[in-house]
Amino acid sequence: MTLAGIYAEQKNNMKAIESRLEKALEAPHPILHEASMNLLRAGGKRIRPLLALISAQYGDPKRPEIIDSAATLELIHMASLVHDDVIDDSDLRRGKPTVKAQWDNRVAMYTGDFIFARAIELISGFDRPEAHRILSRVIRDLSLGEIDQIKELYNWKQNLRCYLLRIKRKTAILMALSCQLGALSSGCTLAVSRRLYYYGYFLGMSYQITDDILDFVGTEKQLGKPAGSDLRNGNVTLPTYYALQKNELHDRIVGILKSENPSEDDWKRVISLIKESGAIQASERLSDRYLQKAKNILDELPVKKATRSLMEIAEYVGKRRY
Amino acid sequence: MTLAGIYAEQKNNMKAIESRLEKALEAPHPILHEASMNLLRAGGKRIRPLLALISAQYGDPKRPEIIDSAATLELIHMASLVHDDVIDDSDLRRGKPTVKAQWDNRVAMYTGDFIFARAIELISGFDRPEAHRILSRVIRDLSLGEIDQIKELYNWKQNLRCYLLRIKRKTAILMALSCQLGALSSGCTLAVSRRLYYYGYFLGMSYQITDDILDFVGTEKQLGKPAGSDLRNGNVTLPTYYALQKNELHDRIVGILKSENPSEDDWKRVISLIKESGAIQASERLSDRYLQKAKNILDELPVKKATRSLMEIAEYVGKRRY
Fold it and tell me: What cofactors does the UniProt entry give for this protein (chains A, B) (predicted)?
């Protein structure tokens, strides 16, 4: 089964989620409506809902709350992206102007708050106390991740632990909880839902590291924004961290980063230094280690179609180049 | 028992809440830390924690989760104020510059998100599923209230229902849930906690209407910001609504409001028109009706000290002039 095949199989559910999202984002206020609809139309891979749907196959995949859970997860993800763009001062996402660039920080603030409110509104209808606990946790972690990001911007001395905690909060926990909540919504056993949590967590760590690698090695066309955007915005990700560990490179890189108003040539130089330092390969190795851990968890799950689909998703995350 | 007496009796609990707040707002990032500490030091009446503490006297007031609940409610309130100031473009609150005025909208966004994350973090530790449901609801309502506020800014044609829904979401629900959560945390009966919910709800409606009246009748010194700030920021509150109902006034008021760059004299004129229209008295009557409903609920509660304290708080809300 290919990834396209997995999406095709979930076509009806994905459509149901899409219309749930559209309904949730109907807004009475024109700017809010336009901003939300732009975000919706910008699409994205909807990987979190997909993980929830496949995890729900370990129980009864027909339960109606599965679609609501999946939509809630995507809404929380969307809300966090809008606020992240304010923190990172990002003007482009997937080649389109961000809310904060198209309007301003104020509009981005309330658009994020609105999408978030809609997510919470969907949650309020859930009867399961675990669902509330799980979603409280993800909301907490996403916000703490946002704060970590602010705190560590332009901090060229941060350690690996700090980076890993940040991507855990920013990405991995939401993927872990997508699997766990999908599973619990289907009524599957706690043991299975816990394993799925860890699968999603390791997958999410690998996914974010790959994202951070692609930010260096992707082309502007693939990325929809200039290469090295993270670095330009002061965000120290794994490749930068590894490059800064090399004494002979550290001072040269930090020299450029600390200079006032680096030119485009300066940026290209520092990006090349990082790319040629072996930092990309080291990052790939760490990403692969997380991916292997995700795959190992699958051995502990029942042999069934859903398990093969999760393996396919892991393969995709390992190979993706955009 | 006077209001001061009630606070004095709760002195130790209030101190415990204050230090819980201080601990929750310790931030690793200098701006975030300073912004949060300024908010904490600006104080305020801590009316929500007080309501939670008194409501907890209907059960076992010694349970440790009561303090955490009360602190969570105050954190949610603080977070919503910071984002509200961005929506309303307010530069002053209680005579001090707001976060968005002292820094900018970006800092206000992430400071609000941070305080909110800390609240959710405290919630995550709660074992009671009702607590999660209650807090999901208040978060949803506060965010929806924020959106209502944006939607209705500069809408001079809005109806009374719309205003009442907005203040319900913005203020009354949080007060209602402060009472309910305080009660539930103390392990009191569901019947009592439900009555306390309604007491808090009616009290909150009256409280916000009084706030909206004070914005017109208070002096700049009392308010810590210019009189008529709501109106100047495009926020149609109850006195404006009532004044606009009078045909002979409607066109004169809207004429000034719709003019480009009204002068300070224009503002003073429109504020006088509203104050002299009988709108303040009409607003006071509606506030009193809500307050009476709050007091009526107290008749259905056990005759005990806590009930007398809640009566005293209602009296205070009815009489407060700052």
Answer: Mg(2+)
